[in-house]
Amino acid sequence: MDDLLILLVFACCVAAVLSALAWLGVRGRRRGVGGEVMGPFEEMWHPSAPRYRAEIRVQEERLVPMPSADAKDQTP
């Protein structure tokens, strides 16, 4: 009986940790801070992830923001 209880507690702890990581990943991606929060965990499962994140950062910096419709009306 004790072995079953130990196994059940262990399984619940693993499930809680995995659920927390999944929730944190979804929340981070929605807010746009996934790289900073989930970076170490992502590197464990996807070793080339830092290279892809750096490439995405470079591409985001290259993008020039489009002027708004209001700015076109105000130019002489």
What does this protein look like?
With 76 residues, the protein is an all-alpha fold. 82% of the residues lie in helices and 0% in strands. It has 4 helices and no strands. It has helices at residues 2-31, 34-45, 49-62, 69-74. Helix 1 (2-31) packs across helix 2. The longest helix is centred in the N-terminal third of the chain and has 30 residues, at 2-31. It is elongated and about 70 Å long.
Brief write-up:
The chain has 76 residues and is an all-alpha fold.
Basic shape:
elongated
Q: Provide the succession of SSEs.
A: HHHH
Number of helices: 4
Q: What is the CA–CA distance across the termini? A: 83 Å
Helix/strand/pairing category: mainly alpha
Give the biggest sheet. none
Radius of gyration: 22 Å
Uncertain spans: none
Share of residues in strands: under 5%
Quick check: average pLDDT? 78
Topology:
Elements: H1 2-31, H2 34-45, H3 49-62, H4 69-74
Question: What distinguishing features does this structure have?
Answer:
82% helix, mainly alpha, 76 residues, single chain, elongated
